[in-house]
Amino acid sequence: MPTFSAHDGTTLTYHEFGDGPPVICLPGGPQPSAYLGELGGLSAHRRLVVLDLRGTGGSAVPPGTAHLRCDQLVDDVEALREHLGLDRVDLLAHCAGVNLAVQYVARHPERVGRLALITPSVRAVGLVITGDLRQETAELRRDEPWYPAASAALEAIVAGRATGDSWQAIAPFSYGRWDETAQAHHATGQAQTDSAVVAAFGAEGAFEPDATRAALARFEPPVFLLAGEVDLSAPPQVVAEYATFFPNAELAVQPGAGHFPWLDDADRFVAATAAFLG
What we know:
- The chain folds into 2 domains: 3-126 and 176-277, Alpha/Beta hydrolase fold, catalytic domain (Rossmann fold); 132-174, no CATH class.
- It is built from 11 helices and 8 strands.
- The chain has helices at residues 70-84, 97-107, 131-138, 147-158, 164-169, 180-192, 195-201, 209-216, 236-243, 261-264, 266-277, and strands spanning 3-5, 11-17, 22-26, 47-51, 89-94, 112-118, 223-228, 249-254.
- It has an 8-stranded mixed beta sheet, with helices on both faces.
- Helix 1 crosses helix 2, helix 2 packs across helix 8 and helix 3 runs antiparallel to helix 4 (147-158).
- The chain is globular, with a radius of gyration of 18 Å.
């Protein structure tokens, strides 16, 4: 696996798939980037440069949790751009990685060509996803055999009565199909996620929503936001509101997709995303 040195000397790892013009891909979690795979075959259209965020995958854990905070990781993306010898980069980010991507845009807008935000986390821009909206979205799955148990667990979470079992029980809501592929994907992600790294990523001071939204309003390059129709983590209504923060954004809602749309319908995901990235 290729590596490079961050500005503070931390050794970071990235993975490359495919050929052609590169697009830097930022995973969510933070968790090892392996869960992205080749994004359903997007590597047939662009060279994917997939970063392991510090503290995950093959990237080193720096001393002190402050160096794992989302706003601090902006410098890692800039170091990767410099390492690749690129004047400008196209960025693709998923889930919590979107928080990092938009903060990079806020700090280095001149370095970004196109920006693709896939089922985005909204913490960096201060949007709120209500429990009612999550439950309304969950209702779309009411005919699934696992729905009664998952719905009860979601209700407990929204009411503040969550247990560890509650979070496990709602896992099917993250996927358009709760089949063997989805279950294996979920199990692998759970096993590899470090809760301490996740907590440090979003620690106090990591986000300045007002400043970030103001910067995004000045960002003129094309932006693509993709929501999954049945995604509780990033419901389409909220992703549509996110799109209004940019002057030049397009929104796509992938039918039947959850939080990992390249797993639910790879052909549809790749067609939409590749068309945007060019």
